[in-house]
């Protein structure tokens, strides 16, 4: 696979536990880059001919300075460089390197606003045991295949992502699994799951109907799990099972996504149509009335550049506006409108279908997917440009991919404070 890589969490965990593999490839890191070591060595050998990149000069740099340079590398380049020597290979288990990496402001490092797609479990060809995903780089317009091996048990489906973690929920046993270096579980599974991860905190919100019995009155509520590290080895606190009643008229869509913006989770609510939000700090829910609620189709909430954005199709013949796909920001100011020519293409590609469309946002980008179709649209908020995405070459042409915002993180230190045996999660 040209330019691609395979992610193997089993190998990654072995590397974190101290397995020493420094020859040939970067498989011990868990991320296997095709011809990674050869490409890096070839790059170094070609640049050594340049006096500015003379190896005799650069080899005399202090190790601490070299480590700082490496800390600024994007994750793919980091694992590419790991195969150079044993010392670089062991940086992931070096406390001094981890501390320095975390001290560097995330704003100082280049963000990698990628998207991770999985086959929708409703597809006939979906194989829950295949455990593979498809990474899309919107800047390079390239696809990569990722394999999770046997780390994710059968019967789990991805539901949310944040801070480099992918949150999975089980179809039967009602448990939650967060994959990076450790996993955690919850005794119950609700229709909607919200996840927000930082270096010092982890928030999980599960909300919806208890569904205790089809003959019982449904108890519409939510549970919030918060893990906070005080830093400096001072310990941590776990708020587990904190309940908060949902708004009276809130009707969450099963499997609906939650979007985290400005310390609050947001999700779509139907019948009546509005937006429900949860304030993490205040432990309370609130409602936001959406515009033109009777005339919107397939409304989707996404986070884009730290802002809450509503994406929906406007389709009402009596309105004095043509059918189109539009975007609104908070206070419901229209931020973007798809051109009529593009909307016609979008409709012909399946955007007018009964199943509607789904959206996912990350950084400056928003991707619109069509259920059962390989067609995807990319919108760049910075460039104000629309572009069709080339079909994923690894999905088998099945279409129906479900996407998540994904920004790879070498370390998620908050997980070190969470025991996989915590009864609350």
Distance separating the two termini? 38 Å
Let me know the average pLDDT: 68
Beta strand count: 25
| Main beta sheet strand tally, sense and closure | 4 strands, antiparallel
Low-pLDDT stretches are 1-45, 181-192, 208-222, 225-241, 419-425
Strand order of the largest sheet: 5-4-3-25
- Decide which structural class fits the backbone: alpha+beta
**Which range does the strand content fall in?**
35-45%
- Report helical residue fraction: 10-25%
Q: What global shape is seen?
A: globular
Q: Radius of gyration from the CA trace?
A: 23 Å
Q: Count the helices. How many? A: 8
Question: How would you describe what is shown here?
Answer:
With 425 residues, the protein is an alpha+beta fold. Among the domains are: 5-103, no CATH class; 291-390. The protein has helices spanning 9-16, 36-48, 55-58, 63-71, 75-82, 86-89, 95-103, 340-351, and strands spanning 5-7, 31-33, 114-119, 132-137, 142-147, 156-162, 165-170, 176-179, 192-197, 201-209, 220-229, 236-245, 258-261, 264-269, 274-279, 284-288, 296-304, 307-314, 324-329, 333-337, 358-362, 365-369, 376-380, 385-388, 401-406. Helix 2 (36-48) packs across helix 5. The chain starts with a strand and ends in a 19-residue tail after the last strand. Mean pLDDT is 68; it is low at 1-45, 181-192, 208-222, 225-241 and 419-425.
């Amino acid at each position: 696979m040209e330019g691609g890589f395979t992610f193997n969490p089993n190998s990654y965990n072995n590397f974190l536990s101290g397995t020493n593999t420094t020859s040939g490839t970067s498989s011990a890191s868990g991320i296997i880059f095709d011809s990674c070591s050869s490409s890096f060595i070839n790059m170094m050998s070609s640049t050594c001919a340049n006096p500015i990149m003379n190896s005799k000069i650069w080899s005399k740099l202090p190790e601490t300075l070299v480590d700082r340079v490496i800390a600024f590398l994007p994750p793919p380049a980091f694992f590419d460089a790991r195969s150079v020597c044993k010392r670089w290979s062991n940086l992931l288990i070096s406390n001094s390197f981890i501390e320095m990496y975390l001290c560097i402001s995330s704003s100082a490092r280049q963000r990698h606003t990628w998207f991770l797609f999985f086959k929708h479990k409703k597809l006939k060809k979906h194989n829950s045991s295949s455990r593979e995903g498809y990474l899309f780089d919107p800047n390079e317009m390239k696809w990569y295949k990722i394999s999770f091996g046997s780390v994710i048990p059968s019967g789990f489906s991805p539901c949310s992502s944040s801070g480099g973690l992918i949150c999975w929920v089980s179809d039967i046993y009602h448990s939650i699994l967060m994959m990076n270096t450790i996993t955690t579980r919850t005794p119950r599974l609700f229709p909607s799951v919200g996840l927000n991860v930082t270096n010092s905190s982890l928030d999980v919100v599960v909300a919806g109907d208890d569904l205790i019995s089809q003959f019982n009155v449904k108890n519409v509520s939510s549970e919030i799990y918060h893990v906070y590290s005080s830093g400096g080895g001072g310990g941590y606190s776990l708020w587990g099972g904190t309940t908060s009643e949902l708004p009276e008229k809130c009707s969450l869509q099963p499997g609906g996504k939650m979007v985290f913006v400005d310390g609050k989770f947001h999700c779509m609510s139907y019948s009546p149509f509005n937006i429900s939000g949860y304030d993490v700090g205040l432990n309370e829910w609130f409602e936001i009335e959406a515009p033109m609620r009777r005339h919107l189709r397939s409304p989707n909430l996404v986070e884009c550049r730290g802002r809450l954005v509503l994406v929906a199709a406007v389709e009402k013949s009596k309105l004095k506006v043509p059918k189109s796909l539009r975007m609104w920001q908070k206070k419901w100011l229209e931020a973007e409108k798809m051109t009529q020519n593009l909307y016609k293409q979008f409709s012909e590609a399946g955007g007018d279908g009964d199943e509607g469309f789904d959206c996912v946002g990350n950084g400056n980008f928003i991707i619109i997917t069509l259920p059962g179709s390989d067609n995807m649209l990319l919108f760049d908020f910075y460039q104000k440009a629309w572009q069709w995405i080339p079909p994923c070459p690894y999905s088998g042409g099945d279409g129906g991919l479900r996407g998540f915002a994904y920004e790879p993180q070498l370390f998620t230190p908050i997980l070190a404070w969470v025991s996989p045996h915590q009864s609350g999660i």
